[in-house]
Amino acid sequence: MHIIVFAAGSLRSGSGVQEALASADLVIAADKGAQTALDYGLTPCVIIGDFDSLTLPEPELRARGCELVRVAEEKDETDTELALQLALEHGATRITLLGGWGGERMEHALGNIMLLASITSVPVRLVDGPSVCWVVHGPARTQVHGTSNDLLSLFPLVGDVTGLTTTNLQYALRDGCLRFGSPRGISNVLTHDLAEVEVGSGVLLLVHTRRSELQE
């Protein structure tokens, strides 16, 4: 089951966003993310949060069939984290997070990257505009479906990433290592429409950007 979670940040449209919307089985919104979902023509099954930023009238949302789950304002988890947990409880086999990067609060964007790293039971991808990012925990491999000349950036999280081997990237790695804190893996380039990244050990963040959708 593919579940889309709308966070409260702004969302740039793009082919990745449209592909996710077209394959959604269920929609969950975190607080103000409900407005973004409705703007894209989707009605959230559940809206969860402390509702500190949600401006839509609750009776109107209930009339649309939304279940409202109100949580305390002072809590350990963010609204987005609770929405992701709810997606797992609803049987998600993959999750797309929309509205998790843009917005005025940089700390929320960084926090959402940490959430990507914390969920290991199902694949989770954060999509915004021309870019999609996800996390791989080694040992594992992942494929990048795009177009030749697209950009792919690799960032170690937590610590170093070792045993790193790439296929169909301009700057190849063979059993290589990316050191935590170094941006060495930024802005690699796909040489074919399909690339592959193999991780021996460590936690790797991948950011795939469709160059054709960049406004350069």
TrEMBL record:
Keyword check for Transferase: yes
SMART domains according to UniProt: TPK_B1_binding
Listed name of the protein: Thiamine diphosphokinase
InterPro entries: Thi_PPkinase (IPR006282), Thiamin_PyroPKinase_B1-bd (IPR007373), TPK (IPR053149), TPK_B1-bd_sf (IPR036371), TPK_catalytic (IPR007371), TPK_catalytic_sf (IPR036759)
Domain of life: Bacteria
Matches recorded under Pfam families: TPK_B1_binding, TPK_catalytic
Enzyme Commission no: 2.7.6.2
Sorted UniProt keywords: ATP-binding, Kinase, Nucleotide-binding, Transferase
UniProt entry tagged with the keyword Nucleus: no
Domain Thiamin pyrophosphokinase thiamin-binding: 146-205
